[in-house]
Structure formats: structure tokens, C-alpha cells
Predict the structure.
Amino acid sequence: MAVNELSKATGRRKTAVAHVRLVSGTGKWTVNGVEVERYIPSESLRDYINQPFVMTETAGKYDVLVSAKGGGIAGQAGAMRHALSRALCALDANLREVLKKAGCLTRDSRMKERKKPGQRGARARFQFSKR
């Protein structure tokens, strides 16, 4: 860990992966080198990734540095929320009960089903023609 880095964790959702580092600061978010408002334009998704801070009343105590890849914006937001929750638990074990009850520590494992051989998609078949 870096000198002023307090905690780090990895979160996942669908095919998205997010690595979060908590640094003592004022609550500034940086995602892939860009401020969070530019990276995630949706206000509802920004509220979603901030949930662990709001529930544990730690908002504004840490700067958050995120490296996110894979999936889409919503999947990455879910991965960020998961990673942030895990990082907060690593900092203070007493926060675990609150975050677990809210479902922030649960990895959303729903993935896209793979395409099967001899089919058009995961479940869709090629059109059958009798003649």
C-alpha cells in the first residue's frame, strides 16, 4: 500500500471489476483518472455507489481512487459499490454488520449466459424448416 493509503479492495458485478483505494481526504472520487461526475453522468448511479458511505456515516472522510474495467457503466457502478463496502469493512470491522444487512457485501453474480454450439444464441435456436 502507498504511504497515505488506508485500505483497498476489489469488487465485481457481471463482467465488471473495480479496484478501490481509500485515502484520507475530503470525499473526492476519481474513476480511471476522471472525476466521478464525468465518468458516471447518472445521478442515481452516483447515489448508488455512495450508499456504503451514507449507511456507515463516513461520507467526506476519505478520497476514493477507483480503477474500473469491463462491463458497462451500471455494472461498473455495482462493482464500485461492492469494492467500497469491502474496503470500509477492512478499515473498521464494526461497519460489516450494517453493510451486510443492506446487501452491499453481496456480489451480484448474475452473468450473461453463454452461447451454445449449434444455436443462434444462449437459448434461441435457428429457425426450423421442415421442407
